[in-house]
Write a structure and sequence with these properties.
Chain B: This is Methyl-coenzyme M reductase operon protein D. Chain B: Keywords: Methanogenesis. The complex is a heterodimer of chains A (252) and B (166). Chain A has 252 residues and is an alpha+beta fold. Chain A is 32% helix and 15% strand. Chain A contains 9 helices and 7 strands, in the order αααααβαββαββββαα. In chain A, the strands form 2 sheets. Chain A has a 4-stranded antiparallel β-sheet with strand order 2-3-1-4. Chain A has a 3-stranded antiparallel β-sheet with strand order 5-6-7, covered by helices on one side. In chain A, a hairpin with a 5-residue loop joins strand 6 and strand 7. The two termini of chain A are 28 Å apart. With 166 residues, chain B is of the alpha+beta class. In chain B, 21% of the residues lie in helices and 20% in strands. Chain B has a 4-stranded antiparallel β-sheet, with helices on one face. In chain B, helix 1 packs antiparallel against helix 3. The longest helix of chain B has 12 residues. Classes of the chains: A alpha+beta (252), B alpha+beta (166). Chains A and B meet through strand 6 of A and helix 2 of B.
């Protein structure tokens, strides 16, 4: 019988959302449109229109030795061209954000190639070749994985994840990279490290509370409780149990 | 010997709103609290206030924020934090209900009120290091212990003959 990846256990809405974000065959729903330049200026790694900086010549010109693995693995576009490594980093509010840091890492591993994700308590970083990271950022920020009020691109000064929300529902940001305008649209006014942008980037309207609760991947007692999921809890306990036992008795 | 705090201290309340307050809402609540006569001290607490005003940022203006002031019990205090909670010291527990009513009037979202000890009641080593112990009873616990150090009494203090400015 062919094995079919389940990606995540559970039948609750949170578990289902986690599954679909990690499943590369699921096409994420597009909620807003951003131009390539919008993404480039928000990342702040290079000026829009400028050439990509290289760390090595294009692979086609390097004349690498013959290797069976090289024949199997197709290099990503950034690798082919020899781009340098850049990063994007997100902070997600614990108040029903569409994504959680760990899920962003799992999602990066299952959906994209040539990435190096890293998770901290309230933020998540992905490193990849420059043009790959731009493509990944664009896809994430245009789709249901991103909400302009409860998630933001934060290269530094990320705290805000566990703070209470501002009165207008925006996640607290010391550097105020994203600001809610009077028309209800969120505008990005600074890049991910807090340098002012030459122009604003419209990220659209924040999701309503109901919409967020429907799309969230966060277990919370005032939403879908972790313990409400009969499949996830034993699964987490089993992993904890096995790791603990193997830690004490490597022979087991 | 230091006398125990128990039995001597005044009751204290913590108002904990569900959201971080805008300066306007914070002032609205303070206006209501200022009307209550049984309050002796109020501390506002929260994360540091962002450097810019959102409206300025939307207009493309950066680093132009004017200082904002709060009126707390008739005293003009510069707002340096985004208000997340209020610590209130009362003359006696009788005005607790009035505080609740003030919060209900001023806050447009839910809040909780906790009772406990939030503002310090005794001098600590910090008071001696920063102020040379010259902190009167009403000022104990009323300044930011994380504020940048100026004229401390011990290590790092500027050399002066008699520490007059402490």
């Amino acid at each position: 019988m062919a094995y079919k990846a389940q990606f995540y256990p559970g039948k609750t809405s949170v578990a289902q959302n986690r599954k679909k974000f990690m499943d590369p065959s699921y096409k994420m729903e597009k909620l807003r449109s951003l131009s390539d330049d919008d993404v480039v200026i928000m990342l702040g790694h290079r000026a829009p229109g400028s050439a990509y900086k290289k760390v090595h010549p294009p692979l086609a010109e390097t004349g690498e030795p013959d290797c069976p693995i090289r024949k199997i693995v197709e290099p990503t576009p950034g690798t082919k061209e020899g781009d340098r490594i850049r990063y994007n980093q997100y902070a997600d509010s614990m108040y029903f954000a569409p994504m959680v840091p760990y899920l962003r890492s799992w999602m990066a591993c299952t959906r994209y190639r040539g990435v190096d994700p890293g998770t901290l308590s309230g933020r998540q970083i992905i490193e990849a070749r420059e043009r790959d990271i731009e493509a990944i950022t664009k896809e994430v920020m245009e789709t249901e994985m991103f909400d302009p009020a409860r998630a933001s691109l934060r290269g530094c000064t990320v705290h805000g994840h566990s703070l209470r929300l501002n009165e207008n529902g925006m996640m607290f940001d010391m550097l105020q990279r994203q600001v809610l305008g009077a028309d209800g649209n969120v505008q990005a006014v600074k890049d991910q490290v807090g340098d002012p942008l030459d122009r604003k980037v419209n990220l659209g309207k924040p999701m309503s509370e109901e919409e967020l609760k429907k799309r969230t991947t966060i277990y919370r007692v005032d939403g879908v409780a972790f313990r409400a999921d009969d499949e996830v809890l034993p699964w987490v306990q089993r992993i904890h149990n096995l790791r603990t036992k193997c830690g004490f008795f490597p022979k087991v | 010997m230091i006398a125990p705090v128990t039995g001597k201290r005044k009751p204290q309340l913590e108002v904990f709103p569900d959201r971080l307050l805008n300066p306007d809402t914070a002032q609205k609540l303070l206006n209501e609290l200022n009307k209550i006569s049984g309050i002796t001290r109020i501390v506002v607490y929260g994360p540091s206030l962002p450097k810019d005003n959102p409206e300025d940022l939307l207009q493309g203006k950066f680093n132009v924020r004017e200082p904002t002031y709060l009126d707390i019990k008739g005293e003009k205090v510069e707002l340096t934090v985004q208000v997340g909670r209020f610590w209130i010291e009362l003359e006696d527990a009788g005005v607790k209900e009035q505080v609740r009513e003030a919060c209900e009037k001023a806050l447009p979202f839910p809040f909780t009120i906790n009772e406990g000890l939030f503002i310090r009641t005794q001098k600590t080593i910090t008071d001696y290091v920063r102020k040379g112990g010259k902190v009167d009873d009403i000022s104990i616990g009323m300044f930011d212990p994380k504020a940048k150090r100026q004229n401390s009494s011990c290590c790092g203090a500027p050399k002066s003959s008699n520490n007059e400015d402490i």
